[in-house]
Known about the structure:
A six-stranded mixed β-sheet has the order 1-2-4-3-5-6, sandwiched between helices. By secondary structure, the chain is an alpha/beta fold. The longest helix is centred in the C-terminal third of the chain and has 17 residues, at 264-280. The chain has eight helices and twelve strands.
Amino acid sequence: MQIINxxxxxxxxxxxxxxxxxxxxxxxPTTFGCYDETFNDDQVPLIAGGGSGHDPAHWGYVGHGxxxxxxxxxxxxxxxxxxxxxxxxxVTCQQQAFFIVKNFPADVAAFTEAQQQLINEHxxxxxxxxxxxxxxxxxxxxxxxxxxxxxIFVQKILGAAAVQGATIEELTTLAAALTPNIQTIGVAxxxxxxxxxxxxxxxxxxxxxxxxxxxxxxTGYRREPFQSSELLAQELVSKLKLNFKWQRGDHYAILVNSxxxxxxxxxMVFNNDVHExxxxxALQIDFNKVGTFLxxxxxxxxxxxxxxxxxxxxxxxxxxxxxxxxWPN
Length: 329
């Protein structure tokens, strides 16, 4: 069951609900894009987006210290290039912007086309592509490298830099250093839900879990019976260890993310299990957030993101307060 009215109106009605709750977000007509009405147009505006259904991403990160604007498309579909251009022009008169894009072919294509359109009109537009997902394709065993919850770390750290006056070139350099140090992997006990569709994106047996799922409800790399949160943590941490090849004393930030249908108690139990494993590895955990940051519309599952803090300035940026709906200060 989904608590909605007519499925075709669900997205518009959800946005109207957001407007009531967060009147500082101004929505651009004929789009699912919003911007921070307090933006003074005195810095490079950061703009992100993608499909709807990942709430609170990305509208929940619009505000001072993070995004200037966010543009969503239909459920699990990116906005069109025309919508991206329209929102970008609504936000700034500087003819410059910086896009933060999740690594899905349709998202990258839409934002790249919008970037080129703006460049053709003599804008300066930077862009970074976040590819933090280390899950593998079940057939080829190649890493999928989708953009998932680690994107929120990128928005937070680049947002702090933008407030401090970073140029497009400086944001590009920062993103190039930051994104390779962010890795994410997820697990779920149910598929994603599309408004109006009775069945989820995939079906599991009772008490079964799926490792390596995607935020659009994509299937993962292995199914097995659920036994405990501790074993989930062991699987995800072991995959991250293989990718990071960490050493004792390395410094990390942790993001434990509900995929939409997971309770705070579950995420906190899992967070505790992760900390115990990382303590055994003698890692230094300098930052930890647990909550609902980037979802798959009701999926009962979670993702674990680690950021290797190779630059102390990243930790400072993560700790700075912001005025957004979804990032807890």
